[in-house]
Amino acid sequence: MDRSNKPAAIGVAASLPQPTVTIHDNRIEATLPSGESVQVYLYGATVTSWKLANGEEQLFVSSKAHLDGSKAIRGGIPVVFPVFGPPPKNHATSALPQHGFARSTNWEFLGKSTSESLGSDKSKTHNAVKLDFGLSSDMLSEEFRKAWPYEFGLVYSVTLSSEGLETSLQVQNKGTEAFEFHVLLHNYFRVKASDFTPSLGVNSLANAATFFNLQNKSYTDKTDNYALKTESSPAIAITQETDRVYQDVDPAVPVIVATADDDSAPLSITRQGLNTITLWNPWTEKAKGMSDFGDEEYKEMVCVEPGAVGGWQTLEAGEFWEGSQTIRPRL
Ligand code: BG6
């Protein structure tokens, strides 16, 4: 018998438990044999849940979030493209809404992959799953297409493994002229509300999350009229409304998000092609002003948003660009 066709080899591989992927009308869910799971809505290709093997949810989604496609989902990982923040005047993105259209358009599920290409260690490949989503110009509403009339394609890949979660965006210019864009992955991380420091008053509250590896970085402080500042703290705590865009952050150096309680391991985020980090927490007053966010929910979340938003990325006709993040639940 030809040894290359030895049935035993096939038998061993086939007996390994495989990830399960369930396709619903509006969302895709994947679970690994080891118990980790992820959920992605087609609306915005928004990852709305990422659970570890012990069932612990890593992402925050507001109890008031709209999940019916009527508004960008308040929580999870919305994809920001092609403009971050309010669009500037006199720019190709000027007629778009804040944070662009990718987060408020239905994407297409392109398929799953659990193949060996997901890892060099073949014994582990049954414990990883990649979900691919696509969005192209012809899938936009007429309104968005008019506001940003470029021919483009986006492929967003969400890879879940027992080591962590990776999300990766490829931007393709399918037209005949160059365009400019921003990309940002708007992670809402969950922080246990009980982690909040008992207070003497609102001003003594500190969110339980602390951020490392941003010291000495320049940032624009959106809460202070976009003033340019330098981070002095090695361990940043959130004690007030925070809305900062850190510039020129080396993507290979992980940003660490630690929480106050000892039983939660810190998250680390490394990036490729994304050299800005936005830190956002709306705090008390802004929280009250948002219809899709609970008044007290600012205690339960922090946004740590890897992006390429320090300036415009220019993409020539026929070219593509890629940026990604890898979030690991432990160091
Ligand atoms: C952050 C911005 O990325 O997103 C903030 O830095 C903004 O300025 C926040 O308030 C939420 O934006 P939106 O459009 O989802 O309410």
UniProtKB/TrEMBL annotation:
Give the CC-aspect GO terms: cytoplasm
Top-level class of the enzyme under EC nomenclature: isomerase
Residues that, per the record, bind substrate? 74, 98, 103
Question: Which EC number(s) does the record attach to this protein?
Answer: 5.1.3.15
A GO molecular function annotation here is:
carbohydrate binding
Organism domain of life: Eukaryota
GO annotations under biological process? carbohydrate metabolic process
Q: Which UniProt keywords apply?
A: Isomerase
Q: Which reaction does it catalyse?
A: alpha-D-glucose 6-phosphate = beta-D-glucose 6-phosphate
| Catalytic-site annotation from UniProt | 186, 305
Function comment: Catalyzes the interconversion between the alpha and beta anomers from at least three hexose 6-phosphate sugars (Glc6P, Gal6P, and Man6P).
- Belongs to which family? Belongs to the glucose-6-phosphate 1-epimerase family.
What PANTHER family is this protein classified in? APOSPORY-ASSOCIATED PROTEIN C-RELATED, GLUCOSE-6-PHOSPHATE 1-EPIMERASE
Q: What is this protein called?
A: Glucose-6-phosphate 1-epimerase
Q: Which organism is it from?
A: Rasamsonia emersonii (strain ATCC 16479 / CBS 393.64 / IMI 116815)
